[in-house]
Amino acid sequence: MTSELVRCGWVTTAADYIAYHDDEWGRPVHGDDLVFERLSLEAFQSGLSWLTILRKRENFRKAFAGFSIEAVAAFGEADVERLLADAGIIRNRAKIESTIANARAAAALTGGLSELVWRYADPDSPVPRTLADVPATTPGSKALAKELKRQGFRFVGPTTAYAMMQAIGLVNDHVAACWVRDPSR
Fold this sequence. Notes:
By secondary structure, the protein is mainly α. 50% of the residues lie in helices and 0% in strands. The protein is globular. The termini are close together.
């Protein structure tokens, strides 16, 4: 797509942001490992720029076995140390350990992570006119975070849950004028 298209205001001129916005953000994502990846990356992003995460995403995928829930759930202390030494990812012990714990929680779910998360989809969420209309949390993200915590997930508060909901299409927060909301423009 060309740069003349109207995009959501958070999109900068960085090619990584443009591609992510145009091709991924807000598009439905299903499948336990794919949802686990997005949840994990949103948790790693907490306190950082999303562009930092986008630029390290392939490194994260390599470091975390393609975000295979089964593989990450089997990680042990040696893997934590390996990840802490990996300059290609965010080396935060709490985030690394929570990702492993979250894989174990996801592996224990009846019905799977994707099914659980998609119960909180809100296809009728209001269309934001501007970025100021986009909430940081919603009742749905608060409920999802609470359920994830009840299921043993860590480092997943309502803001992180909402960011994942936006990223994987549970809500559509493309602003009204954004071409992705109406690709016929």
